[in-house]
Amino acid sequence: MDALDRFWDRVSAPAPDLSPTVLLLTAAAAAVLVLYGPLWRLTRHAVTIAHEGAHGLVALAVGRRLAGIRLHSDTSGVTVSSGRPTGIGMVLTCAAGYTGPGLFGLGAAALLAAGHAVGALWALVGLLGLLLVQIRNWYGLWSVLVSGGLVLAATWFLAAEAQAAFAAVTTWFLLLAAPRAVVELQRARRHRRAPDSDADQLARLTRVPGVVWVGFFLAVDVGALLLGGSWLLAGTSG
Prior knowledge:
Layout: H1 2-12, H2 20-35, H3 37-61, E1 65-71, E2 77-82, H4 88-113, H5 117-132, H6 138-157, H7 160-190, H8 198-206, H9 210-233
Antiparallel strand pairs: 1-2
Helix pairs in contact: 2-3, 2-7, 3-4, 4-5, 4-7, 4-8, 4-9, 5-6, 5-7, 7-9, 8-9
């Protein structure tokens, strides 16, 4: 019990406030990870992990049976669940993928704004652990283990201020990467390279055009970026 109490104390410990300069530098670092092509080809895998993880979480939440998740080296992924092939549960599951990274980033921003940067990192470790047991291919297993190992190392070995900075970079990355992934989706659709994308599956389920669903994804992710960013930057105005 003492060990559990010590662990909880570590998870719930308040993080030091980052200076405005450090916070803006974390935003700039995340922007480089998203906007610089060679780095984006690597960091895009983290977005896929969040995307497929969101599909899986919502599938379970609406009562579908999750059969497994696969992550591929080309940054694509697939989440397989069973249940009714139509209906609100299937719609919510499909809609979760491209909105998931932005909403995860918004949740992390809320924790950071409340002073719980360490808690945000441990929450991420927990989510990656839940995802790990659903992975069904070797590349996906490697991807999640590496990602989880990096976050776990940050929570265990970094000093408190460095942990807060790492959490801020991660949060900014999710908030900034989510809209870019949606823009890439529409570019692929325009060139007819993604006939079975989430937007097109939703179009078949709801009879609402796929481009409208792309607009919905983008609106959610941009909204998460603006709201989460305002929470993170609130402390820089003083």
